[in-house]
Amino acid sequence: MEFAGRDWQLQIENLKDEVRALKESVITKGFLSEDFFLSYLHRIRFQRVCQQHPWKHCPDEKEVGLWSVLQAGLSKAVLGFAGVAAVGALCRASRELGAEASKAKKAVDCLAAGGRGQVFICGGYDGSRLLSEVHRFDPKANSWGSVPALPVPREASVAAVLGGQIVVCGGFDGQRQLDQAVRFDPMAGTWQELPPMHCRRSGATAAVVQGHGLVVCGGFDGEEYLSSVERLTDHWEMLPSMTFSREGASCAELWGKVYVCGGNDGANTLKEVERFNFEVGQWEALPPMLVRRDGPAAAALSGRIWVCGGFDGQQSLSLSSIECFDPHRGFWRKLRSMLSRRAGAACAVVSGQLYICGGYDGAQNLQECERLDPAQGMWELLPSMPRRCGYCAGASS
């Protein structure tokens, strides 16, 4: 037995030498490249492993390949740990993997940005079609990136960042108003369904209130202009209705109270303002705005409510004017106008500065974005969005 073992070992060593000589001769003579040789060798070994360890998909017993595994989300997990630099190598490894890796890269980009201090612009209308794209502006880099697209193109939806995830609710998909709510989880890199709202809503308005979740107000359900209000915590719950039915209003949260401004009731452009107080569970009337505004943008900034742009129901062009409400003094005052006329623009606040993106100026949808530093009182033009975008939804982290 010992002699037979030495004989087998000698034969193995001889075979190794012959294979090495064969490999080096064909590569040296230029018949094959070393990369081609190694890739072909890998293919043979991989086929042998697949034969030894077949993997069947239980429901229909069809074979499942590497591509199916990657579609299940493995590529996103790998990229999340390997980093953005690995994307190029993964794309070059296979044409089939390229598309999936490119989608995953958008999620990794979002992770790389840390998800904080970002402006997100969701959906909208570019003048010819509804959009599913989600654009991301990084103020530190002063540049635009992207997030994987929404499951359904839509305009006139609402968006917010809730629990570190982007939440988008309602809107119009070109055929009907939506009750759908979805969220983007940057760790998973995918959009996930949430329970639907109680009402279909396009042109609604929303704000996140600490301890009270996402509050969605008004809108149009395809038949009626709504005064109803609901909020999302771990489920949807109806709240007391507003005094006015409103579509195209704007909303902001300040000191735990929700302010709803302007909009239209189907017949009139509104300047009425009301505020929901969670402590008493009621809406209360506030002094009206100086100007009627449909489709304005609103935000809480420096202890005041700022309302920007919109339509006044009389001029064909959108407004560039701004007014702000001081809750302590109880009155509105006019401020320096924006650089552009805008209605249906997206609005967000990051690090105490106000961002206004896109919108419709009365003639076309806009790519331009601008930022206000309230301490300076000056508007600053920012890099344009990748696409014209009106009636989009804005959120910030």
UniProtKB/TrEMBL annotation:
Mind listing the UniProt keywords for this protein, alphabetically? Kelch repeat, Repeat
Taxonomically, the superkingdom here is Eukaryota
Q: Which Pfam families match?
A: Kelch_1, Kelch_KLHDC2_KLHL20_DRC7
Q: What is this protein called?
A: Kelch-like protein 12 (CUL3-interacting protein 1)
